[in-house]
Design brief:
By secondary structure, this protein is mostly helical. The protein has 8 helices and no strands. The protein has helices spanning 7-27, 33-56, 68-74, 76-96, 108-134, 140-153, 162-186, 189-204. α2 (33-56) packs parallel to α5 (108-134) and α5 (108-134) packs across α8 (189-204). The longest helix is centred in the middle third of the chain and has 27 residues, at 108-134. The radius of gyration is 17 Å and the shape is globular.
């Protein structure tokens, strides 16, 4: 049995991770606290389930060797939906959110977080750990909806406006459904991490 495989376990795990990850902001009190918080969230929501599975000596078998061209061919409808939604979402973003020209300066930390360690950590937590666990107890559709809902709520930002939060949460939910659908079929975590990075790049430079 893979942990977490219940909705309550997923919520408890994420809640504990978020609460613990807030502490560095009070202790460190600098920009570095963001990295500490990310590491703590990752260790709690991914490290604990992995450790428990090691103790139980029951692992989920995910094949990392994969024919990526075959995955794209077998999931071409899902990929087409992702591309179509990305184009539509970028158009809507330009209409709803007016970007400040002074904020369009390249930031290496933001780029690394958005394109590299962000997708890695999020996919390991929400797809590799939570979605895989939920699939052992619930149907595919139910598991995808639960995982995507949790993923979307994690994108809520207290400093954003209501419109910006609604936009971010809706985008995160819909794109998560697409990514979950591909992961369920391929069971390849490397591929969905790469796909997640490409999606973030599309949003970053829109």
């Amino acid at each position: 049995m893979l942990f977490p495989n219940k909705i309550s376990q997923c919520l408890l795990l994420l809640f504990a991770g978020m609460i613990a990850s807030v502490l560095p902001f009070f202790i460190v009190g600098s920009d570095v606290s963001f990295y500490y918080s990310t590491i703590i969230l990752f260790l709690i929501t991914f490290g604990i389930p992995l450790l428990l599975n090691r103790i139980k000596r029951r692992f989920i078998n995910i094949d990392y060797s994969c024919n990526y061209i075959k995955i794209i061919r077998e999931n071409k409808i899902v990929h087409l939906c992702i591309i179509s939604y990305l184009v539509l979402s970028v158009i809507v973003k330009d209409i709803l959110i007016t970007a400040d020209n002074e904020c369009n300066v390249f930031n290496l930390n933001v780029f690394l977080g958005t394109v590299i360690y962000g997708p890695i950590i999020e996919e390991l937590i929400f797809r590799y750990t939570i979605l895989s666990g939920l699939l052992e107890r619930y149907s595919m559709k139910c598991s995808i909806l639960i995982s995507s809902s949790l993923f979307a709520l994690m994108h809520y930002n207290v400093i954003d406006t209501m419109n910006e939060n609604a936009y971010s949460i809706l985008n995160a939910f819909i794109l998560s459904v697409f990514i979950c659908s591909i992961f369920v079929r391929s069971r390849n975590i490397v591929y969905v991490i790469f796909l997640h990075s490409l999606i973030n790049i599309a949003f970053s430079f829109s």
